[in-house]
Amino acid sequence: MPGDLILTALELNDEQITLIQSPIVGSIALHGEAGTGKTTAGMQRLLHLVQNGVPGESILVLAPQRSLALPYFQVINHPDFPPGGHPSLLTFNGLAQRMLTLFWPIIAAAGGFKQPNKPPKFLTLETAQYYMGKIVEPLLEQGYFENLTIDPHRLYSQIIDNLNKSAVVGFAPQSIAEKLTSAWVGRANQQIIYQQAQECALRFRDFCLSNNMLDFSLQLDIFTAHLWPSVICRQYLQRVYRHLIYDNVEEDVPIAHDVVREWLPAFESALLIKDDEAGYRSFLGADPQSADRLVNLTTGSLRFSHQLVRSDPLARLKADLINSILTHRVTRDPDSQAQTGYSIHPFRFYPQCLQWVAEETEQLINQHSVAPGDIAILTPFLSDSLPFSMTAILESLGVPYTTYRPSRSLKEEPAVKTILALAKIAHPLWDTPPSPQDVRAALAFSIKGCDFVRADLLAQTLFRRSNIPIWLSPFDQLKIEMQGRITYLVGERYTRLRDWLEANSGLGNTELDHWISRLFGELLSQPGFGFHEDPEAAARVSQLLESCRKFRRIYAPPKEVEASGPAKEFIQVLESGLLAAQSLTSFSQQSRENAVFLSPAFSFLMSNRPVAYQFWLDIGSQDWWSRLDQPLTQPYVLSRNWEPGMQWTDQQEYETNQHNLARVAAGILNRCRNHVYMTTISLNEQGMEERGQLLLSMQNVLRAKMPLAGGTGV
Predict the structure, then answer these.
(1) Which value, to the nearest 10 degrees, does the dihedral of the CA atoms of residues 105, 108, 113, 119 take?
(2) Residue pair 661/325 in contact by the 8 Å Cβ criterion
(3) Is the per-residue pLDDT at 147 higher than 60?
(4) C-beta of residue 498 within 8 angstroms of C-beta of residue 475
(5) Where are the alpha helices (DSSP H) in 384-479?
(6) pTM for the whole structure
(7) What number of other Cβ atoms are within 10 A of residue 316's Cβ?
(8) CA 475, CA 479: separation in Å to the nearest integer?
(9) Cα–Cα distance, 436 to 455 (Å, whole number)
(10) At 714, is the pLDDT very low, low, confident or very high (cuts 50, 70, 90)?
């Protein structure tokens, strides 16, 4: 986001100016590759509307997910944004939730809720998994899914995903098993698993209806089946919102396209922005084909063709690589300049690769004056060990970094582990003691100057479960010699930490989020403590607070659900591996301009940020190509584009993975300006040799660029 809110004609090209200054009437479809300035034009179009007398509150900005809406969020919250009403910045689910809250008394009974006179309770992904777990756990004891080896939280999430697919595609949840079974070609016992998954989904749906709880799927079902068809609701929406900007249409779900398709004629003006070659969220229900049908209904159409990001060498690499992936052939061109846009660097072991990447990153920053935010380190899958190893090396070289991994549980974050351990220490009545290792790590992370040796001494000598009101003894109980080994400076900071925990012992029993907020603000963020001047830790605490707050607000367990209080229950849910609530705080954190961006390739694509340099880690990994194993669901079968009666074969799996790899590679290259560093590793993190499809495709590209006399590949 530039410093100036309003860009001048010198900063915009003719294509963008044409779009921005289009008449404020009718509907326009904007097409183009990533990197052609479509979102920038959409942001300036928003400003153009407001500056030309359109009331801000009459503008609806839709985006498929909150990270893709961040540029508009920055525009609307810019100090120079025109005064007056603000546009509504929503996802389709956010719009549905607003309408459900507003019209709840009208549709509660018609929607099948058993307590229509009571307010609704909107579930997050976490709380939905929490209640799903309470329903599924007794069934597991009865032998459900006995032939399936899967983590419980992944089991719950895939059952919920089936429900979500039924809502976003538009079919009844009672047909989930039938759709999955009809496409299955393997062993017959898988059909039983599909039936059990459907039964769990339907039990969860009945549970939600009985307790006025709405998960993502039920919110969309009620909105599309009862609210949108309602004359009152539709007239309200059409009266409030007169102008629409809908960005990244191809990443949204077909049910959203259905509603916008019916709504489109009622808007005074509408701008629909579609990214060519995209559709990365297909596994979440995104439907580019449905998006095509929607944008074809607009009264006007523009295409941006001027590439603002990708260089000519990378454009040629993109064409060659996509051709190699999809056809296994590349046009021979030994003189091509594409080779100046990329380089391949082989390594035998992963640590060697990570060290080289970090050192090369440091040289780009310090020797070539590249801004850290202009560098992205991408991997197909961010394991638990990789970010720890990579960030440790970057820290040792003084390289600022930020990571974004939405699928990573909060419990894996060191800052969150520290908060949880301290909370357990201060609440002995929970009877959930942290392990000595967790106490050691918490003390080392929270106290400046306290290394793991000193933290281990403190944990071994002062952590006692018999202490009341907290499980830490005073520092002055140690012998003088031990105090000297630990140092009095660390001892003084330990004492301040212990005194705060003792003074606030037990106060987090009901409102744990308030307790954590005070712990962070009054102590851990202050000089001398580990969270001071650590924006990464602050971002994780912010996520933890939002997650805890949402859980507390929804926590009112029905009589059939065993529970032990909101604070203790939240910690148990978090430590079981449930995901963290996503927030604009986390999305804006990953957009810091002064930090190298370390993330999975998919998350990088959905952040929609161009960079000058990219590092692709281990292009030989099969994770670049294969999709996650999901034994309880199938995103391509549970789709409007799937022909009923067809079976999902190995050939279709292969072709789908090939097209997904081509789509991801094209999207990444469209977001790089200067150079791509690709690395290969002989032995991966598990000590195995891999030769995945991305590596094989790059070998074809290299062979086509070699002189006819011969050469060697990777």
Answers:
(1) -40
(2) yes
(3) yes
(4) yes
(5) 385-396, 414-425, 436-446, 452-462
(6) 0.87
(7) 19
(8) 9
(9) 10
(10) very low
Q: What is the mean pLDDT of residues 278-300?
A: 93
Task: Choose the weakest-confidence range: 92-96, 125-129, 559-563, 578-582.
Answer: 578-582
Dihedral sign of CA atoms 102, 108, 111, 114 in order: positive
Is 398 a residue whose pLDDT tops 70?
yes
Look at residue 590 in the predicted model and tell me its pLDDT: 44
Can you state the angle between helices 452-462 and 436-446, rounded to 10 degrees? Answer: 130
Q: Which residue in this structure is represented by tokens 């590759």? A: 33
If DSSP codes are grouped into helix, strand and coil, which group holds residue 84? coil
Hey, how many other C-beta atoms are within 10 angstroms of the C-beta on 174? 12
**CA quadruple 190, 191, 192, 193: dihedral, nearest 10:** 50
Q: CB within 8 A of 357, min separation 6: which ones?
A: 377, 390, 615, 617, 677, 679
Residue 706 banded pLDDT, cuts 50, 70, 90: confident
Q: Count CA within 13 A, CB hemisphere, residue 532.
A: 12
Measured distance CA(139)–CA(3) in Å, rounded? 56
Q: Report phi then psi at 597, rounded to 5.
A: -105, 115
- Sheet of 26-32: strands edge to edge? 88-90, 59-62, 243-246, 269-275, 26-32, 300-304
Q: In Å, how far are 358, 408, 552 from 599, measured between CA atoms?
A: 14, 11, 30
